Task: structure prediction
Amino acid sequence: MYRIALCVGLLLANTLGATAHAAADLRLYGSNTVGAELAPALVRQWLAGMGYGQVEEEIEGEELIITATNKGGKRLTVELDRQGSSTGFAALLEEKADIAMSSRPIKPSEVAKLKKYGNCDTAACEFVVSLDGIAIIVNPANPVATLTKEQLRRVFSGELSNWSQLGGSAGPIHLYSLDDNSGTYDTFKSLVLGKGALAPGAQRHASHTFIAKEVSKDPAAIGFVGLPFVNEAKALAVADGEAHAITPGNFTVATEDYVLARRLFFYLPEVTAEPLARDFVDFAVSDAGQKVVTEIGFVSQAVLAGPVELDEKMPEEYRQLAAAAERLSLNFRFLAGQIKLDNKAQRDVARLKAFMARPENKKRELMLFGFADSNESMPIISLQLSMDRADTVADLLIKQGMRPGKVRGFGNAVPVASNDSEVGRNKNRRVEVWVR
Result:
């Protein structure tokens, strides 16, 4: 009798679970980084904008159900399941999700599996919702302020295990890391560890907040979290190869010059996207959605102007043009050896147009500085490629009613990351935007 009751109970539980999935009008699965605070805040603001109030929320483990009702009595339910980026793509494949949340770009293997939805690595499917930096954090009392990416690799792989090896006080290094389901860990592993493995003694946790709290209490600790979660810990400046050390901050993450800057994504099926899901994604990347991004503590894609430190290693013409100018917080980036813009850059044209249309910017002059990575070609050809990229952006802007005053190419000068990795080379293939 007990076995019969248990089977009936399990069947009922499974049926109720399936009903809950089916009942949700919009389903988001994937990254905890995106889903912990950012996606729920975007959902709430989106619902409010459509006239929905009386918001009710229910949390069970990593699942959040948000239900709201409009004045006509219509209810709308949004389900967010936040167990890691890889689970978002799996949920799309299994048709459990309408949108995948991810803190890393989709992998080629995932693109292949999701082919029925179209090309999920194109601008029609991939939407950058926010920018973030993986901050390397230590205890505030730790005297170490800067590390290279190579030092980080050796620390988190266990090759370096004492702070004295890094210029700190003698004592063992305590490692804190996110767990395997985390897209942040996937990104960290790709950017820092490469093909190496995390030291077996590292303490693993699912929560950014928990790691930051533990590191801020432990004088011997070092860990990594998303930029909004640094809190009481200290974030280190990180150098990569020949590039100078850069501290994570809103501007250096927005330009993606910071070595461990990354993009946070929504992936929306190109072929079978639900109208409600498309409307939500459109809101997320709009000005209103990007204001929510800022409020939550991530880095929005709103265009800002700011000064940049110049040094003597930079080309003389570059320094002369930039000396009396401000750099904008967006870069146009390109595929290797090509003048084709990447997915984010295609949408940044509209953002730049809106920025330049503001009354205070109408009399300011745009300048475009193009760059190549050092592996793309010989120096003379590299210079031409960087100029071609700047010209490509200039042509796009002219079509939108903007006319840059200066368009220059500087070859593979002024690297912001090492040219020894594909990620670094991707950062160096860019067109910077300046105003004066």
